[in-house]
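Open question from group meeting: does this chain pack into something compact, or does most of it stay loose? Before anyone orders reagents, we agreed to write out a predicted structure and look at it together. Recording both the input and the output here so the notebook holds the full record.
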Amino acid sequence: MKLAPLYNELKNRDGYQPLVVHTGQHYDRQMSDIFFDQLGLPKPDIHLGIGSGTHGLQTGKILMEIERVLFEEKPDMVVVFGDVNSTLAAALAAVKLEIPVAHVEAGLRSNDWSMPEEINRIVADRLSTLLFTTCEDANVNLMREGAEENRVHFVGNIMIDSLSNYISTLDNVDNSSLPDVKKGKYILVTMHRPGNVDNEENLKKTVQMLDGLTDLAPVVFPVHPRTRKKLIEFELADSNNNLLEKENLHLTEPLGYLEFIRLERDAAVVVTDSGGVQEETTFLGVPCLTVRPNTERPVTITDGTNELVGLDPERVIRLAEIHLSTSVTEKKCPLLWDGRTAGRIADVLDRFFDMTPEERTEKQSISTEKSSEQKLIRS
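Structure tokens returned:
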């Protein structure tokens, strides 16, 4: 969702040859490949197939493989997105080879060092030459940490580019894989953060929360592979996803991007521990209850529909009941969440490479010739 708008923008500008490296950190088809299909992206140019593992093992494997790619391809810049292990590994590999790094979604801070994502994004920001931010508080975070002003570029939220591109098509999405629930009358739940699902006591609280929510309305719960594994491990569900004997609880496999966005749009309230879902619900104007003690996206609270509730089943249930009885939510949207972020990023890249339109056309011509020569050599 973050890659597609920028890839398409650069593909359509003279002077750029975007090359997509898929690390395979997210290797489940429903968590990865289907997104390429639905967002109209070509197959990745390079697929590393890393798979799962501990943070150290996964990050180390990505670092080794990305370095090999960079030696071979010799890119002018490496663009990384978000805060996953792939973000950190790719940034580290590039900067060691003196290749400039651009970090899309820079400056977000939860101030919680128990979150692996917090470590990833802080280190990636420190390594990056260009820092593209989604909101003004991210700029403040970066400046407070000593980032030079000319590295920081407030461009808006690139995820909203994808969302705004596809929102008009949601009613045409095949809903055969979705539960039969009434628009505006159900609760959508997602839970996958290690702090919530890796700890047995916390996962029991999550099940307690689900139990109470199903007494209020139908609950749709796409189960993340990590969450499913822990539910079975702690004997809270069996291998067939049997969790609670409640007709109102609809457990599904992970969904495609378009199917999930449609469920978000039509929900009465969303209960989540996901960062991206906080942003999407804000843009869609759907109430969001974030089951975490903190968020790296405070703008979704100050300028959006999000509320931090922590892992407190009684509080979540009480607030969900209020939202179910309230038909109107005041819709606010943060500055520059307007669907044009990719263009602003590309404009900064133009200035960074100091390319006029004529120079971009010339560079594109040279790059195309070079690419053709490389293909002949490799064949």
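Observations to bring back to the group:
Residues 357-378 form the longest helix (22 residues).
The domain at 3-155+340-378 is CATH 3.40.50.2000 (Rossmann fold).
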